Q: What sequence folds into this?
C-alpha cells in the first residue's frame, strides 16, 4: 500500500540551528509532493510543493525541499530556524495515475518542531 | 477575505448523538474534502466531493455522512455509528481535484463523552 513516513515525531532545536525533516514515500510511479505546516492554533498551510522540473523546491519563509527520486524522499530543510518556526509539519504525496485526483493525497503522521529561543 | 470557515471550533456531545460540523468556502472551489486528524496518525480522508450533488467515500467513511447541495457548503455528520468520534476534523477545498493543491479550514474539535 502507498504510504508516507516521517520518522522524526518530535524535533527540538535551538534558534539558528539548521533543520532537516525527513519524508519518505512508497510508490514507484510519478508523484506530486507537498509540505504543509500547522502553526499552533492555526490552520494547515501549504509550505511548498513539487510537481515537476527542478527537484530543489523553494517555499515560503526560507524553507526548501529536495526531491530525490532514487531515494523516494522529499526532505524539508531550512538553514537557520527561528522561534516562530515552532509548528507541526506534514509531508504529503499524491501518486499520479490516469485517474489522479487530490483525493489520493496521502499524508504522513507529522513532525512536531520545537524551537528553543 | 476568501477562505474556508468551519464551525463550531469546539463541540462536546454525548455518546449516541449525531452531530453535524459545518464547512463553508467562498473560494469558488469545485472540490471539497473532510479529513480527520488524530495524534501520531496524520490526516485521514473521510469523504470528498468533486462537484455539487456528488460525493465519494474516503479511507475512513464508516460512521460519517455528508451532503453537497451547494458548491460552497459541505457539512459532515458524525453519526452514533462512529466508534471513536472524538477527534480534530479538517475541511478542505481545491479548485479542481486534478490540480492537487488543497487549502484547509481551521478545524473543529469534537469531543464525545
A:
Amino acid at each position: 500500500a502507498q504510504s508516507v513516513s516521517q520518522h522524526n515525531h518530535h524535533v527540538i532545536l535551538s534558534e539558528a540551528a539548521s533543520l532537516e525533516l525527513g519524508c519518505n514515500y512508497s510508490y514507484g510511479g510519478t508523484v506530486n509532493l507537498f509540505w504543509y505546516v500547522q502553526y499552533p492554533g492555526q490552520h494547515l498551510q501549504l509550505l511548498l510543493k513539487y510537481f515537476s522540473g527542478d527537484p530543489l523546491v523553494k517555499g515560503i519563509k526560507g524553507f526548501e525541499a529536495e526531491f530525490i527520486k532514487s531515494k523516494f524522499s522529499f526532505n524539508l530543510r531550512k538553514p537557520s530556524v527561528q522561534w516562530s518556526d515552532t509548528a507541526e509539519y506534514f509531508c504529503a504525496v499524491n501518486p499520479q495515475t490516469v485517474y489522479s485526483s487530490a483525493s489520493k493525497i496521502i499524508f504522513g503522521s507529522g513532525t512536531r518542531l520545537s524551537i528553543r529561543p | 477575505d476568501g477562505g474556508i470557515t468551519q464551525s463550531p471550533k469546539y463541540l462536546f456531545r454525548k455518546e449516541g448523538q449525531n452531530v453535524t460540523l459545518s464547512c463553508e468556502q467562498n473560494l469558488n472551489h469545485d472540490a471539497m474534502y473532510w479529513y480527520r486528524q488524530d495524534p501520531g496518525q496524520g490526516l485521514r480522508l473521510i469523504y470528498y466531493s468533486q462537484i455539487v450533488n456528488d460525493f465519494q467515500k474516503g479511507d475512513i467513511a464508516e460512521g460519517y455522512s455528508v451532503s453537497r447541495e451547494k458548491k460552497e457548503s459541505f457539512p459532515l455528520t458524525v453519526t452514533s455509528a462512529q466508534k471513536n468520534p472524538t477527534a480534530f476534523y479538517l475541511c478542505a477545498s481545491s479548485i479542481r481535484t486534478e490540480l492537487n493543491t488543497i487549502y484547509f479550514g481551521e478545524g473543529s474539535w469534537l469531543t464525545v463523552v
Notes: The mean pLDDT of chain B is 90. The two ends of chain B are 36 Å apart (CA to CA). The CA atoms of residues 85 and 112 of chain B lie 7 Å apart. DSSP finds no helices and eleven strands in chain B.
